[in-house]
Amino acid sequence: MAAKINRHNQLRIALTYIFFGGILIMFFYHLTMFFIRRNDIHFLYFSVFCLLIAFRTISTEDYLIGQLIPSLPFDGIIRIEYLSYIIAIPVFGYFVRSLFRESASFLIVNGIGAVCLLFAIPVCCTPTVIFTHIIGYFNVFGIACSVYYVYILIFASKRKQMDSRIFLIGFIVLFLSYVNDYLHNSFILRTINIIDAGLFVFIFTQAYTLSRRFTLAYHDIEDLSSELRNLNINQERIIEERTRDLVTKQRMIDRQLQLARSIQQSLIPDVSCSIHDIQMKAVYLPLDEVGGDFYDVIRIDDNTIGIFLADVSGHGVPAAMIASMVKSFINLHGQSGLTSSEFLQGLNKLLFPMIQGYFVTCFYGILSIDTYEMEYSLAGHPAPVLVKSTGEIYNLNAKGTALGIRDILPLEARIVSFSAQDRMYLFSDGVTDVFSPEGEIFGITRLTGLFQQQVNDDIDTALNRIMLTLRDFQERPEFTDDVTLLVVNF
Question: Which among 185, 186, 96 is positioned nearest to 145, based on CA atoms?
């Protein structure tokens, strides 16, 4: 029972950190968008709101901020909790007004900000035993402010202002969860705290709004292109104006994709190193600006490393977002002492309710540096290939189903032993699913034969020859899928 409670607490803390990380990403994204488009002040307001919610999340949930900043005193944590809550109310008001100026009163929003400032002063200047008594009064004021914000959004929806309805739905969910938590904490209702769920729904609606605007930008580009084709070619002025609009919007899209690519590249580790005479080298080539392949090498302790490789179904931004969730789980549980199958089961519990329509194939091996033995599990992923120093070939098979398909997975754990000069190849299906111009697939048989041919080559030469052979087979330099190849030389 104690172990079950401990696992439950670990999962809850993991979800809190993931929620915290997701909100921080929203903060940095919107702040970057504000610096790119300074006239759109709503990006700044929403980024500050996300930052406040992020700090409130880790200052209320098991006081996790104390783990991140051990030197922070307890009363400092309480002040951060209260201030992030108090300041978030007027910041959100300014955010709503920046989107719906015709429906919100600048005077009332400023008044809300002034009242919140009065509540914030005691939190900054008085002892904990004093300022904690004001929260009940502020909760009432916060509910009143929320009612006003709902009124703004209803009024904007009646006027059919852009995105006001989806904004209203998300905020009503957030408002109701806020009221529920207030009544629960006041011992009026026997429920549970659901503000995190309300925040998730609200932020999801904002993500939907951004995606919708992003899609509309693409539609605008298509519409403008169609208009240009139908215009008389001599109408130079009109063509120049439309072209200028296209270039501006395309640059914005390119900047956003470059930002996403930079974030993902920072999650991919550089494994070009030796660990106790074990050499590693990897090739990672995403199909688009961002991809769904991901690998990592985890230092579990001085004598144990974890080797992880995953392939998310699909390509582009959705697959990259799921890959970032996988990276967050590895950061939290990579050194938790789980077996390979337990590790993948835990990752599946995180992903299953969140990636409907997608799945993730994985390999995870736990290698003992002292004994050269590795316990490993496969979740629907292509089996790694072991090339012995004698040239013998072994496929490291194990039974397992891809993550995200169902909540409980059958996963088999196996053990393999290595010898000096052995070499292990791990890869995604983008390596085997290479096609010739005639439509012939490269396949696992050719690939294992190619691995066997490199038995006497050093790791760099082997990688270069493999990639050259794949490109020669398809007769072009670009691949049609994300390509990941990780080599471990013993």
Answer: 96
Bridge partners, 414 (sequence order): 376
Cα separation, 475 vs 1, whole angstroms: 59
- Pair of tokens at residue 310: 């995953």
The per-residue b/e assignment along 291-319, b for 16 or more CB within 10 angstroms, e otherwise, is bbbbbbbbebeeebbbbbbbbbbebbbbb
The mean pLDDT values, 10 residues at a time, for the chain of 490 residues are: 62 69 79 80 84 78 63 78 86 85 86 90 84 81 85 82 76 77 71 71 70 63 70 64 72 62 61 79 81 86 91 79 84 86 92 88 94 94 94 93 90 93 94 92 93 91 93 90 92
- What's the rounded Cα separation, in Å, for the pair 21 and 327? 11
Cβ–Cβ under 8 Å, residues 387 and 423? yes
**Does domain 274-489 fall into CATH 3.40.50.2300?**
no
CB-CB contact of 490 with 423 (8 Å): yes
Beta strands in 369-478 (DSSP E): 373-379, 385-387, 393-395, 413-417, 423-427
Instruction: Return all residues near 161 (Cβ < 8 A) that are at least 6 apart.
Output: 99, 100, 102, 103
DSSP state of 478: S
Largest Cα span, the chain: 81
Q: Are 485 and 466 in contact (CB under 8 A)?
A: yes
pTM, whole model, 2 decimals? Answer: 0.49
Please identify which residue in the block is written with the tokens 């084709």: 229
End-to-end Cα, the chain, rounded Å: 42
3-state DSSP assignment of residue 349: helix
Phi, psi at residue 305, to the nearest 5°? -130, 150
Nearest to 150 by CA among 177, 132, 134, 169: 169
The SS3 assignment for 339 reads: coil
Per-domain residue ranges of the chain: 2-214, 274-489
